[in-house]
């Protein structure tokens, strides 16, 4: 059995009630719901940090798309003359 570490957190009453309702609906303890939420949050943050670091690496390597090209593409989205997504030159 994996050992867990106790953590104390203060929650706003409304959030605490929402977590309790979710836990009851899932027939799980609140601690399980909170742990699942934190695992999801950590995964999203890890992905975002990795994406930012990759973007910085590409920028440092000169792999950039001019703002004007991106702006023109975004403005064209959904229109009859939609442009293809720009790529590095």
Walk me through this protein's architecture:
It is a single chain. By secondary structure, this protein is mainly alpha-helical. It is built from 3 helices and no strands. The model has no long low-confidence stretch (mean pLDDT 95).
Largest sheet: none
- What's the total count of β strands? 0
| Mean pLDDT across all amino acids | 95
Helix content: 55-70%
Low-confidence stretches: none
Helical run tally: 3
* SSE order, one letter for each helix or strand: HHH
End-to-end CA span: 54 Å
The share of residues in extended strands comes to: under 5%
Rg from Cα? 22 Å
| Overall spatial form | elongated
Query: Could you say which structural class the secondary elements and strand pairing correspond to?
Result: mainly alpha
């Amino acid at each position: 059995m994996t050992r867990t570490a106790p953590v104390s957190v203060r929650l706003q009453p409304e959030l605490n009630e929402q977590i309790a309702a979710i836990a009851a609906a899932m027939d799980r303890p609140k601690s399980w719901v909170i742990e699942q939420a934190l695992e999801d949050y950590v995964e999203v943050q890890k992905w975002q940090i990795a994406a930012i670091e990759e973007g910085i690496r590409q920028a440092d390597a000169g792999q950039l798309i001019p703002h004007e090209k991106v702006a023109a593409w975004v403005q064209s989205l959904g229109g009859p003359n939609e442009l293809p997504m720009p790529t590095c030159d």
